[in-house]
Amino acid sequence: MAKVISLVNQKGGVGKTTTSINLAAALGQCGKKTILIDMDPQSNATTGLGFNTTDFDHDIYETITGLCEINKAVYKTKFKNLSIIPSTINLAGIDVEFVKKMFTDNTFERNNQLRNALALIKDNYDYIIIDCQPSLGLSTMNALVASDAVIIPVQCEFYALEGITQLLNSIIMVQNSMNPELRIEGVLLTMLDGRTNIGLEVIEEIRKYFKDKVFNTIIPRLVRLVEAPSHGKPINEYDPESRGAEAYHNLAMEVIERDGN
User: Fold this and answer.
1) Nearest alpha carbon to residue 85 among 68, 64, 66, 60
2) What pTM does this model have?
3) Per residue in 98-132, is it b (16+ CB within 10 Å) or e — as a string?
4) Triad 247, 261, 232: Cα angle to 5°
């Protein structure tokens, strides 16, 4: 049965989608059957794997609103062991759609729709990676309720911990009321510029705050990582010999090892 991991941080620009794409691809390359779920209406994880949002008949919005079965929204990528459930701009209307459903159906559980859908495909994969949008709205709450674990990407820059308390409070709320098995898989340090003192100071601060929850792997700030999505490829396909590809391979191995595999 798949382990479900959400990439969550309500701050934008912390490398969340970059990590979702490249971690999923690295897990696939390590022989783990993986599916990436794009839960962001900006659809960057979808386009970052070489798709256009017009390429699909079905998407994650249709899945969690009950317009189609989840199996119909799964598409294979051209990368090893990697599939995707894409997102489109329709997902931006999910909050309104769910509120409407609550008024018409008093049994509707707005935070459980993704978990219910994933139950039908969890046996088909080793890992399900969810790229959440930079907010703590209903789509992100659905991801937290559906997940076994959370990875929190944190940028190695000033104000790195800004908003983290709010995120942790949301995780605790989900643990207490909807998903007691949810845990923090790890905190991932991203976009490190080793030439600056502030990056090293942030690393020290984050490690002091989160202790052994911080991954040993640190994702460097690299031009090649920025370029890869524009070519529709994860870094291990775009530049397999790069430091970025090595970093995400190391992260995938850490995730696998933390599961005891």
Assistant:
1) 60
2) 0.95
3) beebeeeeeeeebbbbbbbbbeebbeebbbbbbbb
4) 40
Give residue-wise pLDDT tens across range 218-249.
Answer: 999 999 999 999 999 999 999 999 999 999 99
Residue with tokens 């960057």: 44
Q: How distant is the alpha carbon of residue 81 from its chain centre?
A: 17
CA angle 125, 127, 129 (to 5 degrees): 125
C-alpha–C-alpha distance, residues 256 and 250, integer Å: 10
∠ CA(205), CA(155), CA(145), 5° rounding? 100
Q: Are 39 and 142 spatial neighbours (Cβ–Cβ below 8 Å)?
A: yes
Q: What is the pLDDT of residues 137-191, one digit of tens each?
A: 899 999 999 999 999 999 888 777 777 888 999 999 999 999 999 999 999 999 9
Comparing CA positions, the residue from 221, 187, 223 lying closest to residue 203 is 187
